[in-house]
């Protein structure tokens, strides 16, 4: 019975993460793939209108070689468009996801507490940063940053609250801070030591 407790203690010390923090790498990879899927499907739907033009050219061209060349060119252009949209979408959403979860984990680590304010702060900072990156004049970028900050906080507050409720439910109804985790580990070690001393006596 002592071996599993010791193993659980080692695993929790090795990870050093608060319960409820999101794995940054996994979230970033999911964001990249979701962005690739969205960007590729958006580019594919936009290129459908160009297919009608190709079909009109095919109907007006009696030469088979010319038809084949037109079809090949259209397929190459469509592939390049979808690939470009997929790559750009993956980079954009991946960067946003990486920044958001990185800031959220950083706030949780520095504050030592997991609460909704970590999510709100990360969402506000990430949205305002991406507002500054958008093209336009300096005044336009500042406006985008302010709107992004407000929208990020407004959207992330209910999402953070829901996230905390789900984490608390998964952990048996409570969220622990790092100090509480350390106390519970020390308390478990003391209980084991007391149990060993009682067995010897």
From TrEMBL:
Gene Ontology CC: membrane; mitochondrion
Signal peptide: none
Subcellular location: Membrane
Membrane topology note: Multi-pass membrane protein
Pfam families: Tim17
Residue ranges of the TM segments: 79-104, 116-134, 146-164
Keywords: Membrane, Transmembrane, Transmembrane helix
Family membership noted in the UniProt record: Belongs to the Tim17/Tim22/Tim23 family.
Protein's name in the database: Complex I assembly factor TIMMDC1, mitochondrial
Organism: Salvia splendens
Species lineage: Eukaryota, Viridiplantae, Streptophyta, Embryophyta, Tracheophyta
């Amino acid at each position: 019975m002592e071996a599993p407790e010791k193993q659980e203690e080692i695993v929790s010390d090795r990870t050093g993460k608060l319960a409820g923090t999101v794995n940054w790498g996994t979230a970033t990879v999911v964001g990249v793939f979701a962005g690739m899927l969205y960007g590729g499907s958006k580019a594919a739907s936009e290129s459908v209108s160009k297919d009608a033009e190709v079909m009109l050219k095919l109907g007006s061209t009696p030469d088979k070689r010319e038809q084949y060349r037109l079809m090949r060119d259209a397929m190459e252009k469509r592939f390049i468009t979808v690939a470009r949209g997929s790559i750009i979408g993956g980079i954009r959403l991946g960067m946003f996801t990486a920044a958001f979860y990185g800031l959220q984990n950083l706030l949780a680590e520095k504050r030592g507490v997991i609460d909704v304010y970590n999510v709100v702060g990360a969402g506000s900072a990430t949205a305002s940063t991406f507002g500054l990156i958008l093209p336009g004049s300096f005044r336009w970028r500042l406006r985008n940053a302010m709107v992004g900050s407000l929208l990020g906080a407004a959207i992330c507050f209910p999402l953070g609250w829901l996230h905390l409720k789900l984490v608390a439910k998964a952990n048996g109804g409570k969220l622990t801070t790092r100090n509480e985790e350390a106390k519970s580990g020390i308390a478990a070690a003391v209980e084991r030591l007391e149990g060993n001393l009682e067995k010897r006596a």
